[in-house]
Amino acid sequence: MQHYHLFKKLKSETWRWYNEKDNELWDLIGKEFDNERWESIMQLLVNQNMLKKNKDMITKNSYKLTVKIKEETGIEVFPVILQINYGAISKMERYGWKMYLLAEDQLRYVYSNWTPKDLLLKKYEIEDEVIGTLDVELHRKLR
């Protein structure tokens, strides 16, 4: 792994350390995302985690969502889900999150107001809508 010092800092605490399946999945994720292409995003995420003690790191669900987004929309995102802070609006149960993607070597965002668990349900497929300059919003659609 080329950037293991960055990549290992993004491992969520939800991974079971002595579980063979978890270790195999983590190695698979490392082979796919621990490379030069994603280095700038890894650095940004590590800095955010160090500054804010952000718990949003690579989890099994974030990886599953990454795979589903790639399969259904063709968009390749980095497998970290960051919650969007709406401030006072959160009291009205407003939910949102974003993931990073690279489009034409520029850092862009994939947004959604659907929870990741809602998008992972098999009865829904993911639709993408381009917003502004290559940012993307995800919606769910019944199959």
Q: Could you characterize what this model shows?
A:
With 143 residues, this protein is of the alpha+beta class. The chain is built from five helices and five strands. It has helices at residues 4-7, 20-33, 39-52, 60-73, 116-120, and strands spanning 82-83, 97-103, 106-112, 124-131, 135-142. The chain has a five-stranded mixed sheet. It starts with a helix and ends with a strand. The model has no long low-confidence stretch (mean pLDDT 85).
Summarize the structure.
The chain has helices at residues 4-7, 20-33, 39-52, 60-73, 116-120, and strands at residues 82-83, 97-103, 106-112, 124-131, 135-142. The chain is of the alpha+beta class.
Largest sheet: 5 strands, mixed
Uncertain segments of ≥5 residues (pLDDT<50)? none
Average per-residue pLDDT, rounded, comes to 85
Strand proportion, as a percent range, falls in 15-25%
* Element string (H = helix, E = strand): HHHHEEEHEE
The coarse overall form would be: globular
Compute the separation of the termini in Å: 38 Å
Rg value:
15 Å
What proportion of the residues is helical, as a percent range?
25-40%
SS class: alpha+beta
Q: Specify the number of helices.
A: 5
